[in-house]
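#dry-run=false #mode=assembly
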Amino acid sequence: MLSLFALVLLLVVPSSALASRSVSGYLIYCPCMGRFGNQAEQFLGVLAFARQLRRTLVVPPWISYGRPGAGIDLTPFGRHFNLTKLDAAHPVIDMRQFVDKLSPALWPAGSRAVFCHSAREDGTCQAKVGNPFGPFWDAFGVNFDRDEFYGNTAGSSLGDSESWQRNYPSNRWPVLAFMGAPASFPAQPKHLGLHRHVAFNEEFLESLNLLMEANDLQRPILGVHLRNNVDFSRACGTLLPQLPAGAGLFSSYQCFGPSSHLGQLSMKTCVPDDATILEDVNRLAKSLNIRTVFVATDFDAKLSLMKKAAPEAVKFVSTQTLGTDVFQDVGLLTLADAVLLNCASSLSAFVRRSRDAAGRPSNYLGLAGATGWGHDEL
Ligand SMILES: Nc1nc2c(ncn2[C@@H]2O[C@H](COP(=O)(O)OP(=O)(O)OP(=O)(O)O)[C@@H](O)[C@H]2O)c(=O)[nH]1
Ligand SMILES: *[C@@H]1O[C@H](CO)[C@@H](O)[C@H](O)[C@H]1NC(C)=O
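#status=ok
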């Protein structure tokens, strides 16, 4: 009788849908490392992990940092991205909704364990010690009652989903809460393709179109990402000389591949100098008859440098002149007709993945016209 029922089910439900929808239990975490670019890259690994464990992923807000000491800001995932589309790939629920609606019954206060790899000096995870750890969970009213060190459980490395299911079955562990993202940075190459499920929502795309109209940004538009603040430039200068052959830095795989088989990150590609920027912008602007150059940057857009070398008719705008935030910058770079990105930046890597998903080409500063790694491989 049972097998007949199962057979009927198989006939009416496509097997792939059945496999991906059959989840039990939840996975929740704090995206406590890095800023948007890093959090977004780790998100792909967490999505893959939730899928392997067949658990619904509780989608956290993005964490951003204002001035030092000013605390954190939380931006709900659904404000810019389409949760329905993500849910079609794997069951997800927004964190606020999970905490307000489901956790009182599923994960009541008093029963909450937090997972970390191993104990700190005081024998705990210290899951809420420091920024953003404490403020993040506090924003959802979550306290932890005990700590679970998964590094102590035989075989429970993050990659081994069988031992996770054996050690932490969902009937006894309805919710797995992680003090940080259970995923690597940079992302594993095999997880990058999951980005196609991380799509902007229609309201946000509409607001970007309005922004382009209001500022009269005529196509074709060239987007340029200049990642050049003092910390980043210093990190490139300090870390590059120590980089072993074949090793990458930050998200440099997007240009050179995960094992740097296409070359190695250099100062020219990590913090492109003025001559390199001018050469690359002018070459692309000329060949594509670019009418607008949009420079997204965390620091110096170098607009006067670029204007001097460009025809009068080209319009130059930047993060500063438009007053855009990080999401708008990522959105505009994604929608541009052509881009020059930064090989090391995880924000650039996000833009690259979004453009790949939309079938738009990407180029990189300092790569002499090359398109980086993986256009065919992903
Ligand atoms: N608004 C805006 N912010 C930017 C831009 N570039 C970088 N940022 C900010 O700086 C953060 C880090 O930049 P990434 O390019 O991701 O750098 P990363 O070195 O890969 O990551 P971190 O280790 O977080 O610095 C981003 O997540 C943004 O918050 C930009 O063009 N516009
Ligand atoms: C999200 O995606 C779904 C499925 O593609 C679509 O029907 C819906 O309109 C989208 N919603 C928003 C807010 O973008």
